[in-house]
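Input (structure):
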C-alpha cells in the first residue's frame, strides 16, 4: 500500500485529509523545508510541493508569482527532489506530492525522473498539463516505482473522460472546484457536491477538492462531502507577504493550517 493510500485508510471516521500546497523554493529552499515541518505540526496529512516552472499557465497570479520567484532563484526539479530527500530524513509518514508541469520532467527523462523521485521519497505526481491520453509512458515508469499518478478533474470533465481517468489515476484525484486558475472565483459548495457525486460514479479513489478554499469556513463546507481539502493560494500569500520575516511567515502559515485542519478533523 502506498503512503498516500495509507494516509486515507488511516483517517478516523468523519475526518478528512488536509493537503496544503506551497511552491518549493519560494523564499528559499531552507524556508520551504521549515514550512513543510510547520505544516506537518499543524495537521497536514499530505503536502503538495509545486515544482517551479517559468510558464505556470494553470495557476492564478498568487501561485504564478511564487513560481517566478523560485525560478529567478534558480530552483530546479533536482533541487525539489533533494528537498524531499531532506524531509524524509525525519518524516516517513506525511505523503509528498509533486505538482507541476511536464517540461521539467521531459527534460529529466521519464524513467530517470521516476527513479529519482522514488529514491527521494516522493509519493505522488500531478502533471497539470498532461492529459490522460498522453500519459501512458510516464504512468508506466511511475507504476514501476510505486509512485501514484494523480490527475485533475474539472467541472467540465465529461463522463467519458472520467472513465479514462479511472484507468490511469491512483492515490486520489484532485477536483478543481472552479472554472479558471488557482485562487480564482467564488466557491459554489452545492455545485462541488453535485460534481463529487458524479465523479464517484466512475472513479473509486478518494477525491480531494482544491481551488477557492481560503479559510476554515470554506474548508469545513467542502469537507462534508470531499475526502480531502486542498489549500494553496492563501498559504502562498503569507509566504510572499512575510518573505523577509521567517518567524512571521512560519507562524501565520502555521496558524491558518491549524485552523483549517482543526475544522475538517
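Output (sequence):
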Amino acid at each position: 500500500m502506498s503512503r498516500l493510500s495509507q494516509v486515507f485508510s488511516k483517517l478516523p471516521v468523519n475526518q478528512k485529509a488536509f493537503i496544503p500546497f506551497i511552491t518549493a523554493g519560494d523564499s528559499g529552499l531552507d524556508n520551504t523545508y521549515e514550512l513543510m515541518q510547520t505544516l506537518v505540526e499543524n495537521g497536514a496529512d499530505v503536502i503538495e510541493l509545486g515544482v517551479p516552472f517559468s510558464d505556470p499557465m494553470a495557476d492564478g497570479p498568487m501561485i504564478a508569482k511564487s513560481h517566478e520567484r523560485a525560478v529567478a532563484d534558480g530552483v530546479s526539479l533536482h533541487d525539489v527532489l533533494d528537498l524531499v530527500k531532506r524531509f524524509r530524513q525525519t518524516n516517513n509518514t506525511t505523503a509528498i506530492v509533486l505538482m507541476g508541469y511536464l517540461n521539467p520532467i521531459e527534460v529529466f527523462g521519464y524513467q530517470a525522473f521516476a527513479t529519482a523521485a522514488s529514491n527521494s521519497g516522493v509519493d505522488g505526481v500531478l502533471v497539470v498539463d498532461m492529459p490522460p491520453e498522453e500519459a501512458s509512458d510516464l504512468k508506466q515508469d511511475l507504476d514501476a516505482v510505486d509512485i501514484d499518478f494523480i490527475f485533475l478533474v474539472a467541472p467540465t470533465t465529461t463522463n467519458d473522460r472520467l472513465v479514462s481517468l479511472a484507468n490511469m489515476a491512483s492515490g486520489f484525484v484532485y477536483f478543481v472546484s472552479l472554472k479558471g486558475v488557482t485562487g480564482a472565483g467564488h466557491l459554489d459548495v452545492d455545485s462541488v457536491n453535485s460534481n463529487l457525486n458524479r465523479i464517484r460514479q466512475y472513479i473509486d479513489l478518494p477525491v480531494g477538492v482544491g481551488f477557492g478554499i481560503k479559510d476554515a469556513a470554506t474548508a469545513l463546507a467542502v469537507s462534508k462531502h470531499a475526502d480531502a481539502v486542498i489549500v494553496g493560494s492563501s498559504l502562498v500569500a503569507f509566504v510572499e507577504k512575510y518573505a523577509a520575516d521567517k518567524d512571521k511567515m512560519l507562524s501565520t502559515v502555521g496558524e491558518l493550517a491549524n485552523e483549517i485542519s482543526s475544522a475538517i478533523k
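Notes: The mean pLDDT is 93. The domain at 3-264 is CATH 3.20.20.70 (TIM Barrel).
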